[in-house]
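Renewal narrative, Specific Aim 1. Our central claim is that a sequence can be written position by position from structural information alone. The example that follows is taken directly from our test logs and has not been curated for this report. It begins with the structure tokens describing the chain, in the order in which they were read.
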């Protein structure tokens, strides 16, 4: 098993070195889908009907952009589970979605989590993503929320400061290089109201099997490890966050309300729930 893992890590390193990680990942997933006739059949059936929530379902191509796989059924179930985990952590800490004024889903994709928040009847629900195709689909298919396109590095200038009571960001910081993580943390703090809350997820200790021994050593030393940093915002860019790094570096200007290891069961990620204090910048 260790030898197999070492071979996979060597292949991964070669692919990244050659600069073809995004291409290789896409080709591999599409090959798996081409021989998976059950998923193809289920996708065709689901595309002809609405989801269990009465909302349209995205195409396999859009699902791939968000999840790195092509199964619509997996996308829907994965999003439902993710939303339930988010709701559970919020409720455990006394945050009632139905009483929350303005909510932002940062990195909403094609509504993987957001579509499952419709029943909460949130007064103001917004979604942003850097992919215009995903936002175009959301605008046409999820009328209960408002959507905007952002770039990876230009911020959310269409929102003024102190706009949101709650920001949710599931499996987004996990695909950003370290510099962009800090940029977006500052930007989310800017648009978050005083005493507002931010829930975001990271890849923690349960994902260390994906790292090389050297990368794992960096992680154990409390440093953020980013694999595929030349592909910011893509699935092949993968960031790993030690708990102490989030507390001492990434979220140092925020109060940590809760930390739930493996709390995001849809992605096997850790959940941090943070609060913006009046002095946060």
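The sequence written for that structure reads:
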């Amino acid at each position: 098993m260790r030898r197999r893992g070492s071979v996979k890590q060597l292949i991964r390193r070669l692919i990244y070195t050659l600069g073809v990680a995004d291409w290789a990942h896409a080709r591999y997933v599409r090959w798996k889908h081409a021989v998976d006739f059950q998923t193809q059949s289920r996708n065709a059936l689901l595309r002809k009907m609405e989801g269990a929530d009465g909302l349209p379902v995205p195409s396999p191509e859009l699902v791939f952009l968000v999840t790195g796989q092509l199964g619509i059924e997996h996308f829907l179930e994965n999003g439902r589970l993710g939303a339930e985990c988010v709701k559970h952590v919020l409720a455990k800490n006394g945050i009632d979605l139905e009483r929350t004024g303005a909510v932002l889903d940062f990195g909403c994709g094609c509504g993987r989590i957001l579509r499952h928040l419709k029943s909460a009847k949130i007064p103001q629900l917004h979604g942003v993503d850097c992919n215009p195709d995903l936002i175009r689909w959301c605008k046409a298919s999820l009328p209960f929320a408002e959507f905007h396109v952002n770039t990876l590095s230009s911020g959310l200038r269409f929102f003024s400061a102190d706009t949101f009571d709650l920001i949710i960001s599931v499996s987004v910081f996990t695909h950003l290089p370290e510099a962009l993580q800090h940029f977006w943390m500052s930007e989310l703090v800017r648009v978050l109201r005083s005493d507002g809350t931010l829930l975001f997820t990271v890849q923690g200790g349960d994902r260390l099997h994906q790292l090389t021994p050297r990368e794992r050593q960096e992680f154990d030393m409390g440093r953020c490890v980013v694999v595929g940093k030349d592909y910011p915002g893509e699935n092949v860019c993968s960031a790993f966050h030690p708990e102490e790094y989030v507390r001492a570096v990434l979220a140092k200007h925020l109060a940590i309300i809760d930390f739930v290891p493996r709390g995001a069961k849809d992605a096997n990620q850790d959940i941090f729930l943070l609060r913006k204090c009046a002095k946060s910048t």
